[in-house]
Design goal:
Distance between the termini: 35 Å
Radius of gyration: 20 Å
Largest sheet: 3 strands, antiparallel
Shape: elongated
Order of helices and strands: HHHEHHEEHH
Structural class: mainly alpha
Helix content: 55-70%
Number of helices: 7
Oligomer: single chain
Length: 170
């Protein structure tokens, strides 16, 4: 059986047999699978008016555990977003009644972001749905295949994380 990346590679080989296109077998599939995983996220969170960025914030606050509260700096670090991007996400979550900002009692200049009760309930529900959808997506792999794939992807992630910003050739 061939997938769409096999067909893409066949076309590339026909046009440029001199090029080493082996990386596309992995990178192309990771890219296409990433798009599919994004569709799963949109299908789970979208009906609740929650975009991928907001779902990242909800999940980060939820992972912090009770009282489901973090400073904006710690929140930004856990979801890797700019200060302006975080402000927009928090504004949308506040308007939806899922998160609230309050002054930080230990720092007069700071604020804390907390999931509301509604935010905790909805995040619990959505994370359960999201994990179930991911489980269905990965069900074609055996536990041993899943473990091997996870190890290989971790290795790639660590290599990317070790690069200096902007260095594509490291």
């Amino acid at each position: 059986m061939q997938d769409e990346i096999d067909l893409l590679m066949k076309g590339l080989r026909a046009q440029r047999p001199d090029l080493d296109i082996s990386s596309i077998g992995v990178a192309g599939r990771i890219g296409r699978l990433s798009l599919h995983l994004g569709e799963i996220s949109t299908a789970v969170f979208g009906p609740h008016g929650i975009g991928v960025g907001e779902s990242d914030v909800l999940a980060a606050l939820w992972r912090a555990g009770p009282p489901y509260e973090l400073s904006p700096g710690r929140l930004r670090a856990s979801v890797t977003v700019s200060s302006g991007g975080m402000t927009g996400r928090l504004d949308r979550l506040e308007r939806a009644g899922l998160a609230a900002r309050r002054p930080d009692p230990s720092d007069r200049r700071g604020v804390l972001v907390r999931l509301t009760d509604k935010g905790v309930r909805l995040t619990n529900q959505l994370i359960q749905s999201y994990l179930a959808e991911q489980g269905r997506f990965l069900a074609v792999l055996s536990p041993a295949e899943t473990e091997r794939l996870e190890r290989s992807l971790r290795k790639l992630m660590l290599a990317v994380a070790a690069r200096r910003p902007g260095d594509l050739h490291a």
